[in-house]
Structure formats: structure tokens, C-alpha cells
Amino acid sequence: MDVSILGVRISNLEKIQILERIQNLFSVGKQVFVVTPNPEMLVLASKDAEFRELLNSADIALPDGFGLSLAARLQGEKIVERITGTDFLIDAVQLANKNNLSIYLLGGKNGVGEGVRKWLEQNNFEVNIQTNEEEFRGDSAKKYAVFIALGHGRQERVAKELLGKFPNIVLAMGVGGAFDFLAGHIMRAPKIMRFFGLEWLFRLFVEPWRIKRIWNATCIFLYLILKEKFITQNSRYKVK
Known about the structure:
It contains twelve helices and eight strands.
């Protein structure tokens, strides 16, 4: 069962169910498009109909962000499990291994792709990673899982375009800052802060330049959720 938040469909399933759904799509030969909506992305989608439509075209929309759980509760619903893009990337790599997919990393800066490769190898993942775009485009015999770190908005558009151009791409997923976290370029918030939805506070402390983005993901997002809630309630009263 999906949940709609600010007009964006969110896959409301446990992680194991999402992995099973992706595997089922693989089994019938379908390409899989995965997005990771968080509050900041939903704020953008509320103003950008094209981006909202792009998110809604995905096969899987992970509930990435504590704010989505809060928004669902305010709507009288419940997100069964919060699934961050960073954590799911690891599960997706395991699924790619299981299905003999080569992994292609697109985006990131300062050698971050190599850092991700090293992290995966050090954590005993069997990986066949491509970071050279010419090799990827030239080898149509291989099947690929493509993970894209180009910032929200752009990475989802690129993922959709690649799926349309290359039938040998089995899975495409925008991963935001996951590369930086896995490569050790940026420190993740402690687990206790993640549990209580305080990652934004940790990010503000270590990356104060993100204050505008954090403002959008917290205050603006909450404002839009409450605005939509009260508008909906008022509409019901008028109908009565």
C-alpha cells in the first residue's frame, strides 16, 4: 500500500518486501527505476510538476527521511519502515550481485566512486564496478545496476533517460549523498540521532553551509504538510 505525501507516491512497504518486489520485476524482464524521496525533494516536487511526475513514475519510491514518517502520521497514516538511500544502496548492491549485474557508479566528486568501491570490497561484497562511461556504453552484452549521485532532481532525470536509452540497464537509482557517506568523505549522523530524526541537526553542525537546504527540509516541509492538512479539512467542512 502506497502513501501520498504532497502529491508524491511513497512505497509503504518493509525493506524486505521492496527487495522482493524488485526481484519479481527482474524476473519478468522489467527495468526498475528507484527514487529516494526525502522532505527536501518533496518541497521541490510541490513547486515543480515535472519533477513530481518523474518521482511518481518510479517503480519504487523509498521513504527516505524522518519527516516523511511525521507527515504520514499527521495525515492519519503510518510509514511501516523508514529506508534511507544510503542503507538501501548496500542492499541493492547485494541484489545486483545475486542477479549477476555489473555495477556502474555515476557522479560524485574527488574520486568518490573509487572510495565506494574500496568500501564495498573491504566489507566483503563481490563487486564488478564500472566507473568508465565508455566501457558501460560500449558493452551491451552485460546487464547493469546504475547508481547515480548527481544531486536530487538531476540524478532522477538522468536515471530515467538511461533506462530509456539502454535496455541492458536493469536497475537505475539516484543515491544522493550515499557515495560520500560510504567513501568516508562525509560523516553520517550517529545512529541515535538518526533514530530520533535529528540527522538535519548533525548535518547543520558539520556542514553549516547547508542551512538553506535544511530549512526547506524541516520548516518549509512541515509548513506545506500542515497547510495541505488544513486545506483538506476545510474542504470537507464546506462539502458538508
